[in-house]
UniProtKB/TrEMBL annotation:
Keyword list, A-Z: Antiviral defense, ATP-binding, Endonuclease, Helicase, Hydrolase, Metal-binding, Nuclease, Nucleotide-binding
Gene Ontology biological-process entries: defense response to virus
Ranges for domain HD Cas3-type: 11-177
Organism of derivation: Azospirillum palustre
Top-level taxon in the UniProt lineage: Bacteria
Keyword presence, 4Fe-4S: no
Annotated protein name in UniProt: CRISPR-associated endonuclease Cas3
Amino acid sequence: MIYAHSVSGRDEKLWEPLAAHLTNVADRAGRLAAAFGGQELARAMGGLHDIGKARDAFQSYIRGQGPSVDHSTAGAVIGERKYPLPFGRMMAYGIAGHHAGLANGDIAGGGLSSLKDRLAAGAATPLPESCLTPYLDIAPPEVALAAPVLSEGFTHEFSAAFLTRMLFSCLVDADRLETERFYADLHEEPVERGCPLTVADLRDRLNAHLAQFDGRTGAVDSLRAEVLAAVRARADDEPGLFSLTVPTGGGKTLSSLAFALDHAVRHGLRRVIYVIPFTSVVEQTAAVFRDALGSDDAVLEHHSGFDFGPADSGAPDEEGRDGARKLRLAAENWDRPVVVTTAVQFFESLFSNRPSACRKLHAIAGSVVILDEAQTLPLKLLRPCLEALRELARGYRSSVVLCTATQPAVTTEAGFRGGLDKVRELAPDPPTLYRRLKRVTVSTIAEPLSEEALADRLLSEPQALCIVNSRRHARDLHRRIAVTEGARHLSTCLCAKHRRAELTAIRQDIKDGKTVRLVSTSLVEAGVDFSFPAVYRAMAGLDSIAQAAGRCNRNGELPELGRVFVFDSPENEGHRPPAELALFARTAASVLRAHDDPLALDTLRAYFQQVYWLRGGEDLDSAMVGEGTAAIRGILNALRLHRRRHDFPFADIAKAFRIIESPLVPVIVPYRPAGEPDAVPRLLDALRHAPADKTGGIARALQPYLVQVPRSARAGLLKAGAAECIRSGEFGDQFVALVNDDLYRPDVGLDWEDPTFRRFDFFS
């Protein structure tokens, strides 16, 4: 008997036969790919993916009688030889990479040999009769049943590479699920996957939630009800590309969710994926959805705190037989009817080559994708992002909704060359909505405003919000007003747990009419439902100014219009915006000279058009793919140059596609929340003593206590002894904890400017 999986210490009769594994994976991969018509391709891949395990060397390995050997290349060789381009090549990429990842086609990269080299060195494995399955005999013409994906609009470069990743996703997920099922059955343990609630169930629950708002007569409430009704009336529209342009405060979050659920039920779509630019807003939106839908289980919140890295080998993880395990399993393949995630997680997965990141991609097919705050798409990757959205709508039965108060001009109708076309607006008459929801006036302060003058202005207001462009500026300005009544601070120098507590306290103070003078970075500009009578915004792009204005007189509760002031800082104070923000600010200033109302839709469209035109086509796809003299500027260009034999550089593209170019690094901070002041010391103590393979749950519990800092700042903390690296021999620099507690302050969070600072020294 030839086996796919062994069981240590158990009779071989309990091991999994290779033929059974190949058949089960092929069946499941086909079902997963049915959402986009790729079932025959996926089945053929499943039937071939592990045939290398029939080699004597592998059978010796699983019996503990030899070293580990490659078992992926053999199936890739057969797929490449048996099926014509592009099908055989697509299959070969996925089969060869179903453990290590998608390789480059013809050049080594990303720590992987090229597919070309692997195929040249590999050999087809003759199969014993016991391993033959029906899926090894799928005829090449039958594979062409993937035609729905390869129909109108298909391109030989982007579409083919995209389909390769989608098929890879189906194979990886099917292989992992079948392996997981085998071991769970063996141990008679249930696998807690899936959710009993369907999108129809959630639609009904949302209806019940929204019914409680019926009958409200306020002007803003009435307008929100109109928007909701109009948007839901469009649910019968055929799947495709949509926009939802609703001014801040117009209820677009729940309106977009209602449309998505109605639309999914009407067209048999499987889930709603809500994509948000900021982690802090993901947490808030997921909480809103759980409340509106009356279910924690149906809503998966997935961002960096829930990205559990590669889970690409053998038996399932034995760790965490608790509630977190079900969440971890769902995060692996987005097996929930509602997923709330970040733009980083969503787009970087779409361009990834890692099995763990790509595993969930097939779940996007046949879904409604809502791209919240669509204007935040990264400029240097804008064209690849738009191509991915176009491809999802074109070939994968996905509906994509660009949802924002400041709609970016990325459509052909708006004059964007190569932009999205046939985008249907869901909101009823956006210009009229804007006029009816106008709740603020925006004034630009002519002369640069010094920090002292800005502080004086804030102190003259009983309630005011000031948004600046950097954490340092927020900290410095807060120092100016710190001893006065109602001084508050918000930035990512506060850990997530601390930020949530501050947000709750600030909202309550505003509601109670207390003095609140809040200095914040831009983290409050999306999804935070503050409402101040006066808002000050450091000069930035018009979209940022519009978002800041959304925190002013948000619900129309003031008897007059709210006041928004846009200011600049003097050159000598060192608080000028970073280079890219400075470009946006200059563009905004240029557009405002020709338009009276900074927040009008035609002003915003002119702003985005100028931003894109100033950058030029190459700047909107400017990531460098590959290294040295062989590097290619632009992901789309790299795909075009490798299209002839589908030698796509998957590993190099994955490395190049980074929404956050210079990622920050985490520091665990000693925040002491009310009710659990010893949480961090207790978790750190557990981390120091837990077995290495049992630290995942502890790491997740520490996520709310992380502050992301520049790598150089963390190095300075470590050098000064203000932070320590926990179990560096096993985990490297994964766990760095602050030990100088005086550097984490209850008002501004982590201040790493002077790592040697001690509060005792300061007061002495």
